[in-house]
Amino acid sequence: MRRETVRVGAFLFVVGITCAARTACGQQIGKFVPVAANSDADHALTEINAASDPAQKLALIDKFAAIAQGDMVIVVDDQYVNYYIAAKNYDKAFEYGDKLFALDADNLSNAVNMVRAAQGKGDVNKMFSYGEKTAQILQRFKEKPAPEGTKQEAWDNQKAQTLQDVHESVVYVEQLVFDGAYRTADAGKRAAFLVRFAQLFPDSPFANQALGVAAASYRQTQNTAKMLEVANGLLAKDPDNLGMLLLLADYYSEKGEQLDKAESYAKKSVSLLETAKKPEGVTDEQWKQQSGLQKGLALSALGQVNIQKKNNAQAVDNLRSAAPLLKADDGGYARNQYRLGFALLNLKRVPEAKAAFTDAASVNSPYKALALEKLKGLPATAANKS
């Protein structure tokens, strides 16, 4: 997406004023900086935009800066920002972007450019810092009272139109910030960034996804308190969130806690998967594998709940149904077969239990050693019988 075409925040009208942006004029959030047609500033911007040689373009911007006064310095700084982003000199882009903010704190297009620069540099902390500025600019604009002499209804309509005009730019910022958080290698930092993202942009289409990944990341780091806080909070907002239903059903069943809730979440997951539609961009084969794995995880969690509630016959049914669906996931398959072995032992079906533990030990996972140890304690007469 070409963000270099986003103009400094202003309302630039065609009549008597030329638009200095490189695309069609439109409503933006920030100061209104008129550039009169045939003015020195108009000629300077025309030359700058026509220059293809980077050195020549920078010299022309410097020349423009020497004559710029008042709010026209905003336009100059915007030119410097876009120039240095194109040159991949992100530190200089930050320098001029911060100068621009000092002159126009609500310049939304500058906030977009700063997030772009932070993404180009690979600096997630700066991405969030400027992402926060973006969110604050939007919030201040939404809360801005009607100017004196303007009717509230007309002002509300004008604000709604402006927000619609900048929607694409805001979504672009959200995409960059979310992606920066998502790609953070450290699971704990990734989770914290994603939670912060959802707080900054609660209405973003990526907000729930961010919270879902955050909850899973917190579980990865064994930060159970934060995992439960985020997961339960997301379910309160989105009761049909399949990822969180599966995560909590899996966690509670494994821990032997809140078994009724775990059972309910697992059953609801299976029900949702029966009517779930294939996401756009996912092939039929990918969807079959993804939805099958999810159903396998739900059935395995349900089987574990059955074991905890001493309903071992039902556990065997659920765990055996889960097994073929989990084949593609060594860890999930091994855990399922390990659980199946216990359910069968509880039913005193020792030969079948040995077969299940043997399956669990057949793949590399944390359950391999556990299953082998369990097999040592089973009587030899149980061998080769299922």
Q: What's the quick description here?
A:
By secondary structure, the protein is mostly helical. The chain has 18 helices and no strands. The chain is elongated.
Helix and strand arrangement:
Elements: H1 40-50, H2 54-67, H3 72-86, H4 90-103, H5 108-121, H6 124-143, H7 152-165, H8 167-182, H9 187-200, H10 207-220, H11 224-237, H12 242-255, H13 259-275, H14 284-308, H15 312-322, H16 330-346, H17 350-361, H18 367-376
Helix pairs in contact: 1-2, 2-3, 3-4, 3-5, 4-5, 5-6, 5-8, 6-8, 8-9, 9-10, 10-11, 11-12, 12-13, 12-14, 13-14, 14-15, 14-16, 15-16, 16-17, 16-18, 17-18
Describe the structure.
It is a single chain. By secondary structure, this protein is mainly α. It has 3 domains: 149 residues, Serine Threonine Protein Phosphatase 5, Tetratricopeptide repeat, CATH 1.25.40; 88 residues, Serine Threonine Protein Phosphatase 5, Tetratricopeptide repeat, CATH 1.25.40; 55 residues, no CATH class. The protein is built from 18 helices and no strands. Helix 6 packs antiparallel against helix 8, helix 9 runs antiparallel to helix 10 and helix 16 runs antiparallel to helix 17. The N terminus and C terminus are likely disordered.
